[in-house]
Each structure stands twice: as structure tokens, then as C-alpha cells.
Amino acid sequence: MASDTELGLPGVVVQEVLSGVKTDAQFAELHHRLVSAFTIVHAVTDHYVDAARLKNTCLRKGVNVSGPDCLIATLAMAHKAELVALDDDFTSIAKHSTLRLRPLGAG
What is the pLDDT of residues 85-104, one digit of tens each? Predict the structure, then answer.
């Protein structure tokens, strides 16, 4: 189903996706596809600070989530966007923040 919804991809996710690609040709092709299909969302200092606060909030609630996932969640919240994710860290983060998760298949 086509949608007018803009899709963004945090820069840290671009790094994760491109890490471990076996050949330079595959790397170049995947990089091209990512940057042509998505708006790349860049973090600034305040996002890193807010991600640290979010991680600390989760830790105080007894939930240990990854720092990069906190940054991804922070970027989604800062842009008032829904996040599509398979990682259970985001479900935990959403329970202790204003993160909105978009179910897979929701269109």
C-alpha cells in the first residue's frame, strides 16, 4: 500500500546496517539504496543527552536497554514520529517514555 508518510532512518541505524557488509560493491549499493529511500535523521548534542536520560530512567525502572536504542528512540520522540522496530528494547523503552511504536504491517 502506498503512503505519503515520510520515512526516516537515524544515522546510527545506517551505520549498523552497513557494518559487516562483505564487499565494497555491496556496501556501495546498500548505501545508495538507504540514502535514496530514506531521510537520514542526524543526532545533535541534546539528543545524546536525552538518550542518556532515557537510559537512566529505564535503569531506575530495572530495565537495561542499549544506549544506541535509546538514541534511536530519542530521535523518534524528538521528531514526533512512530518507530517501527523488531527489537524488544523498544517495547521496554515505550513503557517508560512517550515513544510511540508502529506495529509491523500497519499502513
Answer: 989 999 999 999 999 998 87
Q: Which residue has the cell 515520510?
A: 6
CATH of the structural domain 43-107, one choice from 3.40.50.150, 3.40.50.1010, 3.40.1390.10, 3.40.50.720: 3.40.50.1010
Q: Which of 31, 1, 37 is nearest to 17 (CA)?
A: 31
Predicted TM-score of the model (pTM): 0.88
pLDDT per residue over 36-89, tens digit each? 999 999 999 999 999 999 999 999 999 999 999 999 999 999 999 999 998 999
Residues forming CATH 3.40.50.1010 domain(s) in the chain: 43-107
